[in-house]
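Lecture notes, unit on protein representations.

Consider one protein chain, 76 amino acids long.
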Amino acid sequence: MPAFEFALALIALVFIFKLLNTMLLRKGAMRDRRDEQADAELLERLNQVEERVRVLERIVTDDRFDLKQQFKDLGS
């Protein structure tokens, strides 16, 4: 009978190990999905900021902006 109990304990340990392993893998996969979502949000935000910088560069390098700035300097 001790051999049967040993085999039963061994099988139980294998099942517990597989259960814990599966739980840890799922937890890691959920974390990866959250990281991917955060990365996507940050990438979208970066694209928006880049677009705003392009618009500001266009405004500042425009000849009319320089002329307006000179008028402001004369008025003050």
